[in-house]
Amino acid sequence: MMKRISLIPWLFLCIFFAYPQEKPDALRMYIQGNYLEAIKICEGEIASEPVHADSFVVLCWSLVANKQYAVAEQRASDGLALSPYDLRLVEVLGEAKYYQGKNREALELFERYLAGIPDSGSRVGAAYYFMGEIYIRQAKYQHADISFTAAVKKDPLMERWWTRLGYARERAKNYVGAAAAYDKALELNPSQDDAVAGKSRISNILSQAPAL
C-alpha cells in the first residue's frame, strides 16, 4: 500500500509534463485590448512558425488597433507573401493603407476582400464602412451612400456608421434619407454629437423647403 501511495507524486509529474502548459493566447489579448502583448505573442509565434497565417492576422489587427499603421502594412504584406489567398490579410492591409491616406490602394483591397469573402465574413461590414469613408474623401457621396448602406445592413447597431450614412446623404442633398439615417443613429445613442448636429442641420433645411 505504501509503495502505491509513493508513486502518486510521480504520476502527477508525468501528467504535468505530458500536457504542455496553456500557451499565451494572442487573440484573447487583442480582444481584451492588450495590443502590445498580442503583438509580442504573435511575433514570437511567427519567429518559430513563419507560415502561420493566423499569427499574421492577429498581429496586424493588433498593430492597426495600436495605430502602428506603417508596421501593420509591412507585416500584412509579409503575411500575404506567405499566404497570398488569405482574405483576412487582404482586408487588414486595406485598413493599414486607409489610415495612411492611401485611398486608391485601400479601396482596391477592400473590393478584393468583398469579392472573395462570403457575406458572413466577420469584416464585411467594416470593409464597406471604410469604402464609404474613402468615397467621402473623394467627394463621391452617392458611392459613399451605397457603401455605408451596405455597412449598416450588415451591422445595424453601429451608430457611427449610421451617422456617416446620414452625412453622405446630406452632402448628396438627399435630405429626407439623411434625416432617417441620423434618426437611427440617435435612436442607438441620443448623445451622438455628430448625429445631433447633422439632424439639426437637416431639420433647418427641410423647414425652409417650399411645401409641395
UniProtKB/TrEMBL annotation:
Keywords: Repeat, TPR repeat. The keyword Transcription does not apply. It comes from Treponema parvum. Gene3D superfamilies: Tetratricopeptide repeat domain. SMART domains: TPR (SM00028). InterPro entries: TPR-like_helical_dom_sf, TPR_rpt, Ycf3/AcsC/BcsC/TPR_MFPF. TPR repeats lie at residues 125-158, 159-192. This is Tetratricopeptide repeat protein. PANTHER family: CELLULOSE SYNTHASE OPERON PROTEIN C (PTHR44943), TPR REPEAT-CONTAINING PROTEIN MJ0798 (PTHR44943:SF4). The keyword Ribosomal protein does not apply.
